[in-house]
Model the fold of this input.
Amino acid sequence: EMEFPEIRRPAREIWIDPTLEDLETFHDRFIRSASLLSVDIETSGTLITCIGFSTARDIALVIPFYDARRKNHSYWPNGEAEATAKRFVKRVLESPRPRKLFQNGLYDIAFLWRADGIRVFGAEEDTMLMHHALQPESLKGLGFLGSVYTDEGSWKRLREDIETVKRDD
Done:
């Protein structure tokens, strides 16, 4: 990092506006052959607003369910498409393979069960618990861990920037 005056972020490919076809394409290209699937959900109240899947440092899929810009607040064009997307998430998470990695998985796994009846199989890793085992006195939130272990900027801020750009389009 000291060799360059500018901040150099790693290149990433993040699918943020998927179609139903994109879900299957991502599954076939990345999830099917993966040994580990990183999973994270975002919630609001009793709803899952989006869920992210990643099989490597440079590729991720975000499956949105909530969209404040739409009248019915659903990202998907109709109830049938949303149900299909939820069945996709259920199929991926209820499969024992690939192994699953969570950040505070106890929360996410319980929330997935309560909100949508999704049982997670193969949840074997948890970044929050692993970090706590190494550094029990430090913070354990994903934002903090990302700032310590990666070269990424604040992705919560990135999401706000993306939403602003979309509103301006």
Summary: The two ends are 35 Å apart (CA to CA). Helices lie at 20-31, 79-94, 105-116, 127-134, 142-149, 155-168. The longest helix spans residues 79-94.
